[in-house]
Amino acid sequence: MKNEPIITIRNLKMKYDTKEVLKGIDLDIYKGQIIGYIGPNGAGKSTTVKILLGMIENYEGDIEIFGQDLSKEKVEYKKKIGYVPETAEIYENLTACEYLTFLGEIYGIPLEVVDKKAQKLMSLFHIEEYYHSRISSYSKGMKQKILIIASLIHNPDLLFLDEPLSGLDANSVMILKEILAKLSLQGKTIFYSSHIMEVVEKISHRILLLHDGRIVADGTFEELKNKSKEGSLEEIFNQLTGFHKHKEIADEFIHILQEEV
Amino acid sequence: MKEFKSLKILDKVSFFFEKLGINYPVMRKIIQIKLIMDTRRVSTFSNNTDKKKDKDYFKQSLWVYGMFGVVIMFMMISSNPLFIKLNLSFGMIMFMLMMVMIADFSSVLLDIKDKMILLTKPIDEKTMNVAKMVHISIYLFIITITIAGPSCIAGTIKHGLLFSILFLVELVWIAGFMIFITALFYFFILKLFDGEKLKDMINYFQIMLSIIMTIGYQFVGRMFDILDAHMMFTPKWWNYLIPTAWFSAPFEVLLFHRYESFYIILSIMSIIIPSICVMIYIKKVVPYFEKNLLKLNGAGSKNKKRKSMINRLDAQIGKIFCKDSSERALFKFTQTMIINERQLKLKIYPSITFAVACPFIILFRSFNSLHKIRKEIYEDKLYLVLYLSIQMLCSIYIYIQNSENHRGAWVYDVLPVKNLSVIYKGAWKGFVIKYNIATFIIPSSFFIMICGKRIFPEVIIMFLNMLILDLLIFKISSKDLPFSQDFSHIQNNKLDILLISLGFIGFSVVMHIFLRDISYALLIYGCILLAIFFYLFKRVFKIEYKEQNSM
């Protein structure tokens, strides 16, 4: 299964004004993998995803998605991509019905089909009765469910998930994890980025650790563990990003709390 | 999904978009959902946010613009030279367009969600941008027609068909020009400040717009005085700098065949300058926005703590009037919430402005000499108009239960406040001192300046009445905690509050007039008011927990 790369990135660099966010990334992503994409805040994770999604264009380097050059093919490839953004960007004044059917039609699914599909998917998440309510009235978890449904409704081959579990209850988390595992068995590729190391550790086939615009670790969890001699992904993360002071900072924090005014 | 007439008209010219290489069905979809969202966006003027009904807020605001359009129409009816009339009405139309664009349409012009949501879908950038432009054009077209339509009809009746053709063509140029001016405004604010500042500026424009909409009508009468004064027009060099002159000149040339160089140059300017502006807009301003709109999110702007004289004064006043530390915290909290909440400011500031300005408006109905005014005010007891200000100021209190972030009100439940009256008292004091007492000083000191010390005792009486009314309104309003409700939650007894406060003010005015000329009566009246105030003050804040809960 590992012979066809779905994404290839060569020497990807990106600058915001004078600040270098990505300092040269080389990467091959293969079909059917779940990739845990991790790194501290500001490491360049979401910039990479935004470039792959065509939201940022003035990057340097070569990218191929589904075997096509990203600088030439700008629209059609997105039909095979699903995206869950970290911040719940959504047209909140629309109802779930209006929003989901709108997206479905953009993806080229007939209205009746996408309408039925959306309703069925919502009922699996137990939110079908809100299908005709405005998204602005939803709770955080419900919005997240809508974002997940919206990213999957056109059955994409490549998924970008940015903190997809935020706000979901434990049952929904289990459903989603199961869905992701099954999708990857079907040969779908999933780019999973999150700060919750336990989840990344468990679901990813391959972990990429981004630090300061570069990939500093790449491999299965087992490989990373053997290399760094640490027990958990969290500890590996701390080691590779050069962060050791969590104990001192916590002590200091508590010390300040106890100071007499 | 809802179908729109404008989309059906657009369908007729779909070949045009397809020729440009635009995916028309996708563009149509985007515009359709945008129009749906427009009908749901609460405009600056809709006060009754009734959530149950699927009301078309956009249509609602159109009625208000239409009314303003009728006012502008009066310009066209007057018997002045056409050039002057057109200058005036174009000026008003342009002003209104800009106000409306900034106040109500900024969310569309400055949308950053589009990029996040649409560009990750199989939509090419060109289609998205054209969809946005068409959407703005549809919106502008409808607004412009509502504002300018009445004038156009009136002008056509008077000057014939050629007028209406010219007028409509000019409107297109004006609309384009106004987009440019508005965008330029955003451009400079974003360049000089950050997104938060821009949101503040937009908020001020919204406040200004609703003030103009309320007070504007007061000047219609005055306008006729000006119009009656038969103006003559002589060209001057600085006329070249005035946009309304450019747009009015073609009428002189084509309707009255005045081929003087003055009008010809102006007419040429009316075509060339907007064209250049639209070009600059597309070539320079739009790309700039694309890059810098993310600034709007405001993340990472590090503000320094603001410490002004007023802040320190407020803190001092808080210390004097609130002995309890939690009460003082609420005092301060209330004031900072009102200053920082844009939505709340939008509700409160127009009323405050109106309360401060209405005495002035009533005074300057006619331009008389100062001496005459002084006499008039005192003898006709015109300063009693202050009671109207009092009524308006006091009624604002009911808004402090609302907040954009009303969900944050859970903090009250977790805070270790034993006695709820502390919360109400602190909030009430914070509000009354800053937004009633401090505001009341402006018009009242103005009257004292004009009429002299002799009305000072009477102003004190009014002041005491204001405090009592504040307490009364607190007593009858529902006891939701400050900033704990959505804006759609309006007081269910709003009418009661209005009637009771009007009744109270009416009674006070009668008492005032009755006691004014009796010696010592005012003094005794004042003492009685003071006693009532202290009695109420001791009582109204004693609130059982249940009462608050049951609301």
Short description:
The complex is a heterodimer of chains A (261) and B (551). Chain A is of the alpha/beta class.
Features of this protein?
heterodimer; A: 261 residues; alpha/beta; four-stranded antiparallel sheet; B: mainly alpha; 2 domains; disordered C terminus
* pLDDT averaged over residues of chain B: 80
Mean pLDDT of chain A: 87
**Total domain modules of chain A:** 1
Q: How far from one another are the termini of chain A?
A: 64 Å
Q: Kindly provide the radius of gyration of chain B, computed on alpha-carbon positions and rounded to a whole number of angstroms.
A: 27 Å
Helices, strands, pairings?
The complex is a heterodimer of chains A (261) and B (551).
Chain A: E1 5-16, E2 19-30, E3 34-38, H1 45-52, E4 60-65, E5 68-69, E6 81-84, H2 96-106, H3 111-124, H4 140-152, E7 158-162, H5 170-185, E8 189-193, H6 197-203, E9 206-211, E10 214-219, H7 221-228, H8 233-240, H9 246-258
Parallel strand pairs in A: 3-8, 3-9, 6-7, 7-8
Antiparallel strand pairs in A: 1-2, 1-4, 4-5, 9-10
Helix pairs in contact in A: 2-3, 7-8
Chain B: H1 5-12, H2 14-19, H3 24-40, H4 57-77, H5 82-109, H6 113-118, H7 125-159, H8 161-192, H9 195-215, H10 220-228, H11 243-256, H12 261-292, H13 309-321, H14 325-340, H15 342-363, H16 370-379, H17 386-395, H18 410-414, H19 420-451, H20 456-476, H21 494-515, H22 521-540, H23 545-550
How would you describe this structure to a colleague?
The complex is a heterodimer of chains A (261) and B (551). In chain A, helix 2 (96-106) packs across helix 3 and helix 7 (221-228) packs across helix 8. Chain A has helices at 45-52, 96-106, 111-124, 140-152, 170-185, 197-203, 221-228, 233-240, 246-258, and strands spanning 5-16, 19-30, 34-38, 60-65, 68-69, 81-84, 158-162, 189-193, 206-211, 214-219. Chain A has 261 residues and is α/β, with parallel strands linked by helices. Chain A is globular, with a radius of gyration of 20 Å. With 551 residues, chain B is an all-alpha fold. Chain B has helices spanning 5-12, 14-19, 24-40, 57-77, 82-109, 113-118, 125-159, 161-192, 195-215, 220-228, 243-256, 261-292, 309-321, 325-340, 342-363, 370-379, 386-395, 410-414, 420-451, 456-476, 494-515, 521-540, 545-550. Mean pLDDT of chain B is 80; it is low at 48-52 and 546-551. The chains are: A alpha/beta (261), B mainly alpha (551). Chains A and B meet through helix 2 of A and helix 3 and helix 6 of B.
